[in-house]
Amino acid sequence: MALKDVLIDELRDMYSAENQLVKALPKLAKGAEAAELKSLFTSHLEETKGQVARLKQVFEILGEKPTGEHCKGMEGVIAEGAESLEKDEEGASFDAGIVGAALRTEHYEIAGYTAAISMATTLQMGDIVGLLEENLKEELEAANKVQAAGKTIFGEAAAEPEEEADGEAGVRAKGPKATQKKTGARKSAKGGKAA
Ligand SMILES: [Fe+2]
Q1: 3-42 residue pLDDT tens
Q2: How far is the CA of 128 from the centre of ligand 1 (A)?
Q3: Rounded Cα distance, 109 and 111, in Å
Q4: Which of the pair, 193 or 164, is modelled with greater confidence?
Q5: Ligand 1 centroid from CA 26, angstroms
Q6: How many whole angstroms from 139 Cα to the centroid of ligand 1?
Q7: Residue 19 Cα to ligand 1 middle (Å)
Q8: From CA 135, how far away is CA 137, in angstroms rounded?
Q9: How far apart are the CA of 31 and the centre of ligand 1, in A?
Q10: Following DSSP, what letter does each residue of 11-74 receive, concatenated?
């Protein structure tokens, strides 16, 4: 049955993705500056371990092994996230990058579970669908929480002063921060990063 094989591959990918996240989430929790983000990642880590356990149950039902695939997609998404941890932004601007990275991981998983649930539904594998839907529900909730935290963080980041703000009466550009990035004063040799 071809579709069943595709589903098993998909699920092995998810199993790999979840296990990669079990390793990556503590790094995001450690790197994030806002306490809210830290605790969000820490609690999603616990959920993620539960998701791994559910996937194991799914494989037991299927009579298959969960291992054997490496999810390159999640590897890439996590690598992008690791880059956000190396940015030399500070405070909310730093966290803003992490929010983007975390949302990417969640939506990647949401896509994977959505596809797997559709396949399992087509194959009339009700017990598997139920387990996968529990995982999907947690991913959707996690994405919503990250997005909600993001709103606050983005607001704070937007209010953070740009770096060239100290001293030097000469370099007062337009004023309001409506004009960001490129339009900002590019004059001083140090060239502070725009948020
Ligand atoms: Fe997950």
Answers
A1: 999 999 999 999 999 999 999 999 999 999 999 999 999 9
A2: 16
A3: 5
A4: 164
A5: 14
A6: 6
A7: 9
A8: 5
A9: 19
A10: HHHHHHHHHHHHHHHHHHHHH--SHHHHHHHHHHHHHHHHHHHHHHHHHHHHT--S-S---HHH
Tokens of 95: 């966290």
Given a cut of 90, whether residue 122 has pLDDT beyond it is yes
The pair of structure tokens assigned to 177 is 């921060």
Return the sign of the alpha-carbon dihedral for residues 14, 20, 22, 25. Answer: negative
The residue assigned the tokens 């998983």 is 109
Token pair 């387990």 is at which residue?
Answer: 131
* Burial tier of 162 (Cβ tally within 10 Å: 0-12, 13-18, 19+): middle
All structural domains of the chain, each given as residue ranges with its CATH number in brackets, are: 2-160 (1.20.1260.10)
